[in-house]
Amino acid sequence: MALIRSQWRKLEPVSVSQTDRAIREWLKDLDETEIERGVYVIRFARPYSVNYPNRPSPVLYIGEGDTLKRLQGHLKNWLRDLSKTMPGVWIDARVTQPRVQRNAEAYKEVEADLLSYFCEVYGAMPLFNKNKEYFGTSNQYTRTFLNVLNPGSGKGYKWAISPLRSNERQLKMFKPWRAVEVVAK
Questions:
Q1: Which residues contact 25 (CB under 8 A, 6 or more apart)?
Q2: Helix or strand or coil: residue 4?
Q3: Bridge-partner residues for 90, per DSSP?
Q4: How far apart are CA 33 and CA 37, in angstroms?
Q5: Which residues lie closer than 8 Å to 5 by C-beta, 6 or more apart?
């Protein structure tokens, strides 16, 4: 078990209905060091959030891997579909590259821990995540690291949307499968 102290980097909000060229420009902002073995969180930009069973969050998806390729894939697929049902919606992304000595798979563990913690706090998986990830170990995290899942302070989020039963991505409730340890900063 390791204490993860990695910092999140925010990619500025972008409209998902923008041209592919504009999206490529947005992704060009990623540093080469943030691309491989990264963890990322795709979120609604203000004023929208998702009305999860326990409380609202702007988080749409938590993922890991080659960040640039994965974000490009999401933008071509489900984010493009989202822009058709919610024209003009904006998203932002947060990226990090957690490193743990002698553990090249740390980024996978961090994604699994974030999903577990999200389920525990918000009562469901992020709207566009399909699979629960699981690793035998869990890490420790500072509260500031986990803040990426929260709407934050202030009055920027005005809406908490919910998918209806007719939506194929209807929220499914389940119990979290393990706890994540949070330590004070």
A1: none
A2: strand
A3: 15
A4: 9
A5: 142, 145
> How many CB atoms lie under 10 A from the CB of residue 138?
19
Beta bridge partners of 15: 90
Between CA 5 and CA 98 the distance in angstroms is 8
The domain locations on the chain are 3-183
For residues 107 and 98, the answer to whether their CB atoms sit within 8 Å is yes
Segments in the chain below pLDDT 70: 19-20, 23, 29-34, 136, 154, 165, 167-185
Cis peptide upstream of residue 47 (ω within 30 degrees of 0): yes
- Averaged confidence pLDDT in the chain: 80
Q: What phi and psi, each to the nearest 5 degrees, are found at residue 69?
A: -65, -40
pTM: 0.84
